[in-house]
Design goal:
The complex is a heterodimer of chains A (199) and B (360).
Chain A lengths: L1 H12 L7 E6 L38 E2 L7 E3 L5 E6 L6 E8 L6 H11 L7 H7 L1 E5 L2 E9 L6 E9 L5 E9 H16 L2 E2 L1
Antiparallel strand pairs in A: 2-10, 3-4, 4-5, 5-9, 6-7, 7-8, 8-9
Chain B lengths: L1 H23 L3 E4 L8 E5 L1 H19 L7 H23 L1 E8 L3 E17 L5 E8 H4 L4 E3 L6 E8 L2 E5 L17 E5 L13 E8 L2 E2 L3 E4 L6 E5 L2 E27 L6 E12 L4 E8 L4 E3 L2 E9 L4 E8 L5 H32 L1
Antiparallel strand pairs in B: 1-2, 3-4, 3-19, 4-5, 4-14, 6-7, 7-10, 8-9, 10-11, 10-12, 13-14, 14-15, 15-16, 17-18, 18-19
Helix pairs in contact in B: 2-3, 3-5
The chains are: A alpha+beta (199), B alpha+beta (360).
Chain lengths: 199, 360
């Protein structure tokens, strides 16, 4: 009798509790993208390597933007949506990213409001957008630059520029992090924006 | 017998997992006409059938078999059979099937679920470690708000999709309820949940992180979106994504080499193998192991099988099975074997002594 009651008890134990959990893991390289179910054999036909979401086409040649790095800055490529990651020689939480998307990528206002949302600021309208826009001239054209600082105890700051190139792509250059380090890196970041040119 | 036939046939449309759950690991088998919303129970499921068979076997053993040494072999055989059926109950309740995908040269210290997904909100601010908040998507399906443990952020769940199709939203289509991230430019349509082996549910959710009375906008997070999306609260960056549920291990596996041998002159696979190194700092262990077809690695309660591969033979997929009852079928087979041998010996002895009596 014991033999058949044990499984019944186990069945009741098998129902795992559903709750949000918290744990800390050391930073490591990203794991390969998730595969769909399939317990043996090959990846399912036609799936390629699942989880690979096609990234936007990476512009090369004449469509690609170039920039000059100030002393001490380093550049590394990043996967996913990023075209490049730029790291200033500044202590603290600060990072610059370059993203390129086809077309207008949702337009200036929606992107600016998305950036503002990332640092906890509310959306603005076209009038406020025009007031916040700071045009910076470069060899690639005029870059619209916005500078926002969040609220709260630990203030976040974001300096972001966007420019649409002749091939229709929109480029986003974003410096983001804690207000202090961003403030230190901002003059160099503006020089990078000023140095933009087409290949 | 009927269940076995139905389950076998159902594997084509439902996949192994779906068919086994519907016929074998259910109390009742439900059926409804195509396209209708109502279903009725039409047959007892495997759980009921297995339980009745087990109880019947147990009752018959106790009632009909005398508790004597002469019947010791039969007792062992019956106990072995009861244990075999019980083992299936244990597996159904406790077995966890996960996977580990490792690229050559990569070290991985977690396994991922084949089926279950989680909304991972990761505070990536610290340069040395990530603070992970994992919310099972099964909880998002039921809850309207989820509090992150020991964190000021609360998630308002606006809408949950167990499976959905995502596409670019055209200018003439109604606006999305998303206000932040990539959501506003994405069109989402609900789809029926799939269970076939080669299909994946695009689990998606509209979620609004709120902290200190401030909303960070409504985000569309989906397993179909490759790149995580992020927001910054009080200077801390949080990345959001839906991913297969992860279970971290106290040890790590590094894929040193994946080999895919073919029969000469053909593309017919002959052998797949993964040369991995196990690193277990708590035990001071670092050793190489070769995992190949029918030669899994059993380590710390988990069994790692070579299951699949990808990315031009540089990615190895291991199936990782954790089943506390994995020994039960072996024990039951040993019990049945010993029982049959004992019973044979007893009967042989009895027939020999009868023959002896006749002779004398």
């Amino acid at each position: 009798m014991i033999l058949s009651t044990i499984p019944m008890l186990l069945l009741s134990l098998g129902c795992r509790r559903e709750e949000a959990t918290r744990y800390r893991v050391p930073k490591d390289a990203a794991a390969p993208a998730a595969m769909p179910s399939g317990t043996a054999g090959m990846p399912p036909p036609g799936m390629g390597v699942p989880g690979d979401v096609p990234a936007p086409p990476r512009p090369t040649g004449q469509g690609a933007l170039k920039w000059s790095l100030p002393p001490g800055w380093t550049e590394g490529e990043a996967g996913g949506m990023r075209y490049a990651t730029l790291k200033p020689p500044v202590q603290g939480k600060v990072e610059a990213t370059v993203v390129v998307l086809p077309g207008m990528a949702g337009g200036e206002l929606s992107n600016v409001n998305r950036w503002r949302g990332q640092i906890g600021l509310g959306p603005i309208d076209e009038q406020a957008l025009a007031a916040a826009r700071k045009p910076i001239k470069s060899k690639a054209g005029t870059v619209s630059v916005f500078d926002f600082t969040g609220e709260g105890q630990a203030k976040s700051r974001m300096v972001a520029g966007l420019i649409t190139t002749n091939d229709g792509n929109t480029w986003f250059l974003k410096l983001v992090g804690d207000a202090g380090p961003v403030g230190k890196a901002e003059p160099d970041f503006m020089r990078i924006i000023g140095s933009l040119h087409l290949d | 017998m009927v269940l076995v036939v139905l389950c076998t046939l159902a594997q084509v449309p439902l996949g192994t997992y779906g068919a086994v759950n519907m016929y074998m690991r259910s109390i009742l088998v439900w059926w409804g006409p195509e396209g209708s919303t109502w279903i009725i129970p039409v047959f007892p499921g495997g759980t009921i059938v297995g339980l009745i068979l087990t109880l019947n076997l147990l009752a018959a053993t106790v009632k009909r078999l005398q508790f004597t040494w002469a019947k010791a072999g039969l007792w062992l055989v019956h106990l072995g059979l009861i244990l075999l059926v019980s083992g299936e109950f244990v597996s159904a309740a406790l077995q966890v099937d996960d996977r580990m995908a490792i690229e050559q040269g990569q070290t991985v210290n977690f396994v991922e679920s084949y089926r279950d997904t989680e909304l991972a909100i990761i505070d990536v601010t610290d340069p040395a470690f990530d603070e992970v908040f994992a919310v099972p998507t099964s909880l998002l399906a039921k809850a309207s708000t989820v509090n992150l443990p020991n964190n000021p952020i609360t998630l308002n769940v606006k809408r949950f999709f167990p499976n959905a199709a995502l596409a670019d939203r055209g200018p003439m289509e109604p606006p999305s309820i998303a206000t932040a991230g990539v959501g506003p430019s994405v069109k989402i349509e609900e789809r029926a949940v799939v269970s076939a082996d080669n299909e994946l549910n695009n689990t998606s959710v509209f979620v609004e992180p709120v902290a200190a009375g401030r909303s960070y906008g409504i985000w569309l997070v989906s397993i179909a979106l490759g790149a995580p999306q992020s927001f910054i609260h009080e200077g801390r960056t949080y990345m959001m994504s839906i991913r297969p549920t992860r279970h971290y291990l106290p040890y790590a596996l590094t894929l040193k080499k994946f080999s895919h041998d073919k029969y000469p002159g053909t593309d017919i696979p002959k052998n797949f193998s993964s040369l991995v190194q196990i690193s277990n700092p708590s035990k001071g262990e670092a050793r190489d192991v070769l995992i190949y077809m029918n030669q899994p690695l059993r380590y710390e309660g988990r069994t790692f099988y070579q299951a699949s591969f990808g990315k031009g033979d540089t990615l190895s997929i291991l199936q990782v099975v954790e089943n506390p009852g994995w020994l039960l079928p072996y024990i039951s087979c040993v019990l049945v074997t010993i029982g049959l041998l004992v019973h044979f010996a007893i009967m042989l002895r009895r027939s020999l002594s009868k023959r002896q009596e006749k002779v004398s």
